[in-house]
Amino acid sequence: MSIRHRFIVILTLLIALIATIMPLPLSVDAFRPDWVLVVLIYWCLALPSRVNVISAGFVGLVLDVLLGSILGVHTAAMAIAVYIVAGNFQKIRNFSVWQQALIVGVLSALYHLIVFWMQRFLTDAVFLPSYLYPVITTIVLWPWAFLLLRQIRRHFRIS
Amino acid sequence: MNPIFKHGPSPQHRLLLVLICSASLIFFDHKMNSFEHVRGFLQSMVSPLQYLATTPKQMMNWAVENITTRRQLIAENNAYKISELQFHQQLLALEIVKKENDRLRSLLASPLRGEVKKMVAEILSVDSDPYSHQVVINKGRDDGVYEGQPVLHDEGIVGQVLHVGANSSRVILIVDVTHAVPVRVSRNGVRLVASGTGKIDRLTHNFVPHSYDVRTGDLLVTSGLGDKFPEGYPVARVTAVIKNDANAFAVVQSEPVAKIDRLRYLLLLWPEKPAGIFAPQPKDIKPTTSNKKASS
């Protein structure tokens, strides 16, 4: 993987980070999909030896700083979700896009629950069903993000 | 390259490494607060991303501001002229009252209230994290912003500065679960503490005895205790008082007066350090002979 390829991967992650913190109206905000998780899962499926648990942890840390949460919360949640992908990437790759979308939905639910459990442990957060709304939008987002990122990967021949 | 053969440490080891790192980060950040300075530095590092993320919204705002009809502008202009006239008239009365107040305070030998330095800041981004209520503003250490600084809206207290970066900083709102403001009821001076609940339109007041005189509709203003917020700014209006003798304390809930979900511009205050009543009075400064010589 040349420096140019690495730059493209980092650029997609940066765009996902910007989409995560972009201001949205309050009614739509609860449905914001997990852009960063989707992009990380795609690169982990495509290049499991390049984008891995450690890169996921680092991106999670940047997300912690951007969101102003306690440092380390999103780091751990992101790393655990990507660890599951990294352990099963050969199986997940062979599924159809919609089956993959369901798996990404389960991972996204796990990610949100881990973040909630940690917040519950550290501060007195109360569970609201709206914390899991992003799972729905993430399932819908996955096929489109998958096709777009595969197009990017093939166009720039990243391997 | 062939991903069948493993390179480097196994995923288990990597996960263990990341989890240990994040556990220590959580411990040092949450329990020890040892990242206060690093947080400011990190905040300045990621502020370009925040400025980038807010550009679409700013373009929308710019478009909305530029695509207004002439008639709208004229109507707005007239409304502003009328309200300016009213405010000007009130200002004249205020000047007299202020002078009178200063004279009375000097008779009582109390310290005079000076003008407070203010600055307008614009909101860069609102957090999408549902567990905390924070916003990022476009003023930082270069503008003199400091940690714990009170932040206001035109209707009342909004929050205080949490982390300061070089040219952006993070404001924690009064509705955040981890935030509380000392307040008093403006009607009778009963002291309460307004704690955030994590919901944008709800503050709660813990440990209120049944005997306290608090009613629905009471305005709560900052009490100035705790030396964070200046005294007398509106915070919330009481929405519910439930006095059930089965409970040890009365349940009091209130709604912030500032529209926390519709913020765009905020006001930063630089309050003067409140002088206690036992603080030494400033001595009359007598011009010395050397000064006289220099001036003559």
Number of strands of chain B: 12
Number of domains of chain A: 1
Strand content of chain A: under 5%
Q: What is the H-and-E element order of chain B?
A: HHHHEEEEEEEEEEEEH
How large, in whole angstroms, is the Cα Rg of chain B? 25 Å
Q: Based on DSSP secondary structure assignment, what is the total number of beta strands of chain A?
A: 0
Strand line-up of the largest beta sheet of chain B? 1-2-5-4-3-12
What structural class do helix, strand and pairing data of chain A support? mainly alpha
How are helices and strands ordered from N to C of chain A? HHHHHHHH
Main pleated-sheet profile of chain A: none
| Radius of gyration of chain A, whole Å | 15 Å
In CATH, the topology of the domain at 116-273 in chain B is named Thrombin, subunit H
CATH superfamily of the domain at 116-273 in chain B: Rod shape-determining protein MreC, domain 1
Describe the structure.
- The complex is a heterodimer of chains A (159) and B (296).
- Chain A is built from 8 helices and no strands.
- With 159 residues, chain A is an all-alpha fold.
- In chain A, helix 3 (35-46) packs across helix 8 (133-156), helix 4 (53-67) runs antiparallel to helix 5 (73-87) and helix 5 (73-87) runs antiparallel to helix 7 (97-122).
- The longest helix of chain A has 26 residues, at 97-122.
- The model of chain A has no long low-confidence stretch (mean pLDDT 90).
- Chain B has 296 residues and is of the alpha+beta class.
- Chain B contains 5 helices and 12 strands.
- Chain B has a 6-stranded antiparallel beta barrel.
- In chain B, a hairpin with a 4-residue loop joins strand 3 (150-152) and strand 4.
- The model of chain B is unreliable at 282-296 (pLDDT under 50).
- At the A-B interface, helix 1, helix 4, helix 5 and helix 7 of A face helix 1 and helix 2 of B.
